[in-house]
Every structure is written in structure tokens, then in C-alpha cells.
Design goal:
Elements: E1 2-8, H1 10-14, H2 18-27, E2 31-38, H3 42-48, H4 58-65, E3 70-77, H5 80-88, H6 101-105, E4 114-116, H7 120-130
Antiparallel strand pairs: 1-3, 1-4, 2-3
This protein binds adenosine-3',5'-cyclic-monophosphate (CMP).
């Protein structure tokens, strides 16, 4: 069993898409083992996306991630990291395959509705950024 971190981002929360996105996760065999809604501060968002610090889109990404609450989830399944990345679809929704979350719901490259860890190592780091061991079922 693997675990991965998922975020439902501000553009999706503002459109009340949490339920539909969670439904897609569950119907695709991803089990929710932790979940919470929170408002990120600019410092928290900046630290979460530190790997993109040098990118031209970094500041706008932080502003966007703080523009409304996010929902953070820990998802569990065999191959959870790759299974959830497949379900999310490409970062740019224009390139996302049909029946993926981003194809259905994303508004743009930045406002792409969801985030998912890109490796087991980043999943561990990202899960521990949002949740303590006591929060995870
Ligand atoms: P995510 O998978 O959370 O990882 C980094 C985020 O930065 C990405 O989703 C998008 O929200 C955003 N992003 C990535 N590339 C770009 C880009 N070229 N322009 C604007 N935002 C981007």
C-alpha cells in the first residue's frame, strides 16, 4: 500500500467541486485516510511550493493558493502516487486526457483544481507537511 497527498485547490473549492472530485477519487479506488479543509497563509504556500521558487509563476502560484481554502487529503491504494497522478491528468488541462479531474474541472495551467505528490519521497514530505501521524487512519 502507498499513500499520496492530494490538494483540492482554491478554484475548485470556490466552485463547490469538492464533493465531485472526492467522488472521482473514491470511485477510482483511492481510499481517504485523512482529510481537512484549511486556509493556507502565504508563508505556508511558499514553503509547500519551494521547489518552484525560481519559476516565473511562483509568486502568482502563492497568491492563487491563498485566494480561498484548500482541502488536503491523504489517499491510500496500491500505487497511490501514480494512480492518483493518472486520475488528475496533465498539469496543463489542455493536454489532459478525457475523464481526468483536470480535463473535467481545471480552468487553466495555474488554476488546475488539484495537486498530487509526484513521487513516494515527495508524498512522504507533503503528507507530513499537512498531517501528523495521529491524523491518519
Ligand atoms: P501542481 O501540480 O500543484 O504543481 C505546481 C503548480 O504550479 C501546478 O500544479 C500549477 O498550479 C502551477 N503551474 C505549473 N506550471 C505553471 C505555469 N507555467 N504557469 C502558471 N502556473 C503553473
Amino acid at each position: 500500500m502507498e499513500r499520496t497527498l492530494a490538494l483540492i485547490k482554491p478554484d475548485a473549492v470556490l466552485r463547490n467541486l469538492q464533493g465531485e472530485i472526492i467522488d472521482m477519487m473514491q470511485k477510482n479506488g483511492l481510499k481517504i485516510v485523512a482529510m481537512k479543509m484549511l486556509q493556507l497563509s502565504p508563508k505556508q504556500a511558499a514553503h509547500f511550493y519551494l521547489v518552484h521558487k525560481e519559476q516565473p509563476f511562483y509568486q502568482n502560484l502563492i497568491t492563487y493558493m491563498c485566494s480561498a481554502p484548500v482541502v488536503a487529503l491523504v489517499l491510500e491504494s496500491t500505487n497511490a502516487v501514480s494512480a492518483y497522478r493518472t486520475l488528475m491528468g496533465e498539469t496543463n488541462p489542455e493536454n489532459a486526457k478525457p475523464h481526468t479531474i483536470r480535463k473535467k474541472y481545471a480552468l487553466s495551467l495555474r488554476e488546475n483544481s488539484v495537486h498530487g505528490s509526484d513521487s513516494l519521497q515527495s508524498a512522504e514530505q507533503e503528507i507530513s507537511y499537512f498531517f501528523s501521524a495521529f491524523d491518519i487512519i
